[in-house]
């Protein structure tokens, strides 16, 4: 196998000759497979708010369905990078499954392992403006741990090349890339009223203002907020708003006006 740094430079040169996101995604996924990487996830988010603007994955439909049904987003350390400020992570799923301290985490790592996603490398890449991209590369190669740890600098170069050359415009009917938005949004759905209350909170309204607007008691508003927080696994209402935007449950435009 050619060195990761050489592969990254060749990838950059080839991407400069492709002009649509779909073409670039297809070429990158194919090139990564030839290098022994079996999947890639990428998302774009705001480092200030943690709001995930878009996300794509080349993982299998079977695993993504299991991820959704298991509500694994709450335990996903790579997804958590959009809010916790950690720049780069290497995950060996077999070891994480043994050391995990919750049934959901154990399920997440065992599921990844069973699906062939044995080793994961992630990097957050700063972009112009209030924007960053996270790239996650997976491999089941026997030497993947050595590559992702001993060649971490080269892996960072590769992830940066990918992050700075791929955008969100993909067509699921024409390629092997899936929009993760609906999958994240399918975990523990909010009721219409809970969603409505969070949307009003995102516009900057106080509990008493929401109460007046909806014609309900203020304690009812607080109950809806608490229920939404519990479903979203959010410790605060601010965290609930961030997660709701990430899942497409409330409008990012409203949230950014706060």
CATH first level of the largest domain: Alpha Beta
CATH superfamily of the largest domain: Transcription factor LuxR-like, autoinducer-binding domain
Question: Which structural class is indicated by helix and strand composition?
Answer: alpha+beta
Low-confidence stretches: none
CATH architecture of the largest domain: 2-Layer Sandwich
Counted beta strands:
6
- C-alpha geometry: globular
Count of the domains:
2
Average pLDDT, rounded to a whole number, is 89
Instruction: Write the element-wise H/E pattern from the N-terminal end onward.
Output: HHEEHHEHHEEHHEHHHHHH
Helix content: 40-55%
Tally of helical runs: 14
Looking at the structure, the CATH topology of the largest domain is Beta-Lactamase
What fraction of the residues are assigned to beta strands by DSSP? 15-25%
Span between termini: 50 Å
Largest sheet: 6 strands, antiparallel
Strands across the major sheet, in which order? 3-4-5-1-2-6
Structural Rg:
20 Å
Word description of this protein:
With 258 residues, this protein is of the alpha+beta class. It folds into two domains: 4-185, Transcription factor LuxR-like, autoinducer-binding domain (Beta-Lactamase, 2-Layer Sandwich); 192-247, Winged helix-like DNA-binding domain superfamily/Winged helix DNA-binding domain (Arc Repressor Mutant, subunit A, Orthogonal Bundle). Helix content is 51%, strand content 16%. The chain contains 14 helices and six strands. The chain has a six-stranded antiparallel sheet with strand order 3-4-5-1-2-6. A hairpin with a 3-residue loop joins strand 4 (119-127) and strand 5. The longest helix has 15 residues, at 218-232. The protein is globular, with a radius of gyration of 20 Å. It starts with a helix and ends with a helix.
